[in-house]
Design brief:
Blueprint: H1 17-82, H2 91-108, H3 112-140, H4 156-231, H5 246-302, H6 308-335, E1 344-347, H7 348-363, E2 369-374, E3 377-380, H8 382-400, E4 405-412, E5 416-423, H9 451-461, E6 465-470, E7 476-483
Helix pairs in contact: 1-2, 1-3, 1-4, 2-3, 3-4, 4-5, 5-6, 7-8, 8-9
Bound molecules: adenosine-5'-diphosphate.
Adenosine-5'-diphosphate is lined by residues 391, 395-396, 399, 423, 425, 428, 436, 441-444, 447-453, 476.
Length: 491
């Protein structure tokens, strides 16, 4: 099994959640600013219309005051005539007030008709004053013809001034009415605008919330549920988010982490089993080692007294007895975490041929064919490695059957030295593939289920591994590989 690579690749900025949040909020804020800006413009126009109305009102007040001032001025002229030219109090003040009101009105108005009317009032008022000073006043004092004393409200100059003032008032009223109409229009537009603002704001907020719910809240909920499932111990579960953003990256990281945890857990279980096995083996070894020692003692004692044929056979018995002892010792050593390997340069071809030589006689009378080819070396504990290869080849011979074939190939790549053991047997059923290396797993009647697990433990202790697969068309292939360089070595 291989661990998935961590998926911490850089995310395309276009899809980052931070960017999405900024986009959604700036969209809402931007649209609201635009709408509020338009509303502010409308309010400014309303303000201007109100100002125009107030200004029109003030101008009307001034026009009325001007009319009153001119009438007062004309009334004082009449009083002067009635008094026989005796006294002229307040006349100059009334005239100055009328002139000042005229100036103020002219300064404030920009309507051409009003400007024209005010000009006419100014001319008529000056003429009225001139007639009074040059004709009426001397006649009142008796120094000019009495005809000039005709003085009443129907004087053409007075009626002309009154008409001009009426015109001015009518113009100003018209302007005020226009401003009022504009104001009402603006108020209606503003109300409509406010309704649109409310609707647009609500729609934008709803769209932003929908967008955020789809792109943030929903994947977050999936992540939370997935993390809870993984947290509950179901490490085979997968979080199904494959979006190219932080959520997709986080889901991929969590999935990869769960996979690594599962592998780690499986290895832990495996090593726990091996450790348990080692404890049992320690007890058995204690009992077996003593009889083995006794057997070896008797064998070496009698070696010199036997005839040649028997001596050869007993030598083989001695050798295999020694191997039994090594295996028991090896299992004990493997069951302890601090395995010490006696590494040396091992010719893998020689090791495989040696194993084949040992195993073939056991396979007889079967006609199984066993071939060893290739060449490679490895830095390994020869005794332990032999034990692992022995298990693989023995399994292959057993699987290949009576007339089967076993092909052992030795080779090397840049990183690994490899021994592949292929057979023409039934192959590995898919449902058993995951269990082959479990300690004590066996499908054979007299099997122990220790061969593959112990072999893999030996090879992993060397930094290598054993991989199992089915052959092309027939049988199974077990590949044992060892690193060509020790971990940490630089050359
Ligand atoms: P044992 O040989 O005692 O059963 P192993 O650990 O060596 O224990 O093997 C475990 C199981 O793996 C075997 O029982 C068998 O089902 C399967 N197996 C091992 N080697 C092969 C092979 N070459 N072809 C098919 N199945 C195999």
């Amino acid at each position: 099994m291989t661990a998935s690579p961590p998926t911490g690749a850089a995310l395309p900025r276009r899809f980052s959640t931070r960017r999405r949040l900024v986009l959604a909020f700036s969209g809402v804020v931007g649209a609201m600013l635009l709408v509020f800006g338009l509303q502010a413009l409308a309010l400014r126009r309303i303000d201007r219309s109100v100002d125009a109305m107030e200004d029109g009102d003030e101008q009307m007040q001034l026009a009325l005051q001007l009319g009153a001032a001119i009438h007062e001025q004309y009334g004082l002229q009449g009083q002067y005539v009635l008094d026989g030219g005796a006294e002229l109090t307040g006349y100059e003040a009334a005239r100055a007030r009328a002139a000042s009101l005229l100036d103020r009105l002219e300064a404030r108005t920009h309507t051409p008709q009003v400007v024209a009317a005010l000009g006419a009032i100014r001319v008529a008022s000056a003429e009225l004053d001139r007639v009074f000073r040059e004709q009426v006043a001397p006649a009142a004092r008796g120094v000019a013809p009495v005809a000039a004393l005709a003085h009443d409200r129907s004087h053409p100059l007075v009626t002309g001034i009154q008409r001009s003032i009426d015109d001015t008032l009518a113009q100003l009223q018209g302007a005020i009415a226009a401003s009022r109409g504009e104001l009402e229009d603006l108020e209606r537009a503003l109300l409509r605008g406010l309704a649109v603002v409310l609707a647009v704001t609500a729609a934008l907020l709803a769209a932003a919330m929908l967008y955020l719910s789809r792109s943030v809240a929903r994947p977050l909920a999936v992540l939370t549920r997935g993390a809870a499932v993984l947290g509950s111990g179901d490490l085979g579960a997968r979080i199904a988010i494959d979006t190219p953003d932080e959520f997709g990256a986080l889901a991929a990281e969590l999935n990869a982490m769960a996979l690594r945890l599962r592998e780690h857990q499986a290895r832990l279980v495996e090593s726990e089993k091996l450790a348990g096995l080692g404890r049992v083996a320690a007890g058995i070894a204690h009992e077996i080692n003593n009889p083995l020692q006794v057997m070896l003692g008797y064998l070496s004692l009698n070696r010199d007294h036997l005839d040649r044929g028997l001596a050869g056979q007993l030598a083989a018995v001695e050798e295999e007895t020694l191997r039994c002892k090594q295996i028991v010792d090896g299992m004990l050593a493997l069951s302890r975490p601090e395995v010490v390997l006696a590494r040396q340069r091992v010719d893998l071809r020689v090791l495989c041929e040696d194993v084949a030589e040992r195993l073939l006689p056991q396979a007889r009378p079967a006609a199984v064919r066993l071939a060893v080819s290739g060449a490679a070396e490895a830095l390994a504990d020869g005794v332990r490695l032999r034990q692992a290869v022995f298990n693989l080849v023995r399994n292959a011979i057993e699987a290949a059957g009576y007339e089967g074939e076993v092909d052992v190939r030795v080779g090397a790549s840049e990183l690994w030295s490899e021994i592949s053991v292929a057979d023409t047997g039934p192959g590995i059923p898919p449902e058993l593939r995951g269990r082959l290396f479990e300690p004590l797993f066996t499908t054979k009647d007299g099997g122990t289920g220790l061969g593959l697990s112990v072999s893999r433990a030996i090879v992993r202790a060397h930094g290598g591994d054993i991989l199992a697969r089915n052959g092309d068309g027939v049988g199974a292939v077990f590949v044992l590989r060892l690193p060509r360089r020790e971990a940490g070595a630089t050359a």
